[in-house]
Amino acid sequence: MSSSPCRTCLRPCNATKPERSPPSLELLSRREWVKRFALGSAVALGSAWKGQLLADISPTTASSNIITLKIGSYAALQNSYGSMRFSIFGESVPDGVILVTRAPGNVFHVVSAHCTHEGCTVEAYNPNASVPSIECLCHGSVYDIQGRVITGAMDNQEDLPTYNTTYANGDLHIEIPNLNLKVNQVTLASFSGNNKRLRLSFPARKGGIYKLSYTPDLKTAPTSVMFSTTANGAINTSQVIQSADATRHLWVASTAKRGFYLVELLVQVY
Q1: In angstroms, rounded to a whole number, what is the distance separating the alpha carbons of residues 198 and 253?
Q2: Where do the Rieske domain residues begin and end (predicted)?
Q3: CB-neighbour burial class of residue 203 (10 A; exposed 0-12, middle 13-18, buried 19+)
Q4: Residue 132 belongs to a domain
Q5: Domain count along the chain
Q6: 43 vs 256, which has greater pLDDT?
């Protein structure tokens, strides 16, 4: 996934030259400080991976719905018919767990891991079963490698929902509809000398585990930053679990004059 990233300027975007003296908090609080951030994707980092999803968080463009897995990081996905489950929002959220299965010829099938009978989490694809399949152990529903019903637990049972994928150079890109990680607004919450407290606001999904990171120039690898979940709280939190679909506000401390803050969605091997 590619895009032209936008510089996140931590001074007023309409400033044409440095201020002779720090502008007042009252003035700064009325200005629009940060509108555009960077474009990125989730990258798997190994067997103990909790990948980070760096969202397209420009408010004027479509949100990023892509996660990317480095297939070489997963032994189970090195060979044909290898299969793994990944938790995006947890099993309590519809379609919060996905199943990735590798077919011959570098073809990958990604389906929802939630059975269409009563929502139980299905098993990984088993190529050694009497009928190679994905099975739900709750009530016996059976699906093929593409998530199509072989044997349903009820009449007219639906197939497992599928996800569009693209595979190139060892990376599997998976489109997750309505993933919708996008920072809508960053505002200056307080100002004292060079010390600033910024409020980042973004739509968060129930069950999502969120972190923040910072990079000064997008060429430097982002580093995790601590934050507060309240306007005046201590900035000592590294991640937060979202309990409902809602706008999430996080506060960070910054002395930087420019740079990029990135929202991260942690994804776990299920």
Answers
A1: 6
A2: 93-174
A3: middle
A4: yes
A5: 2
A6: 256
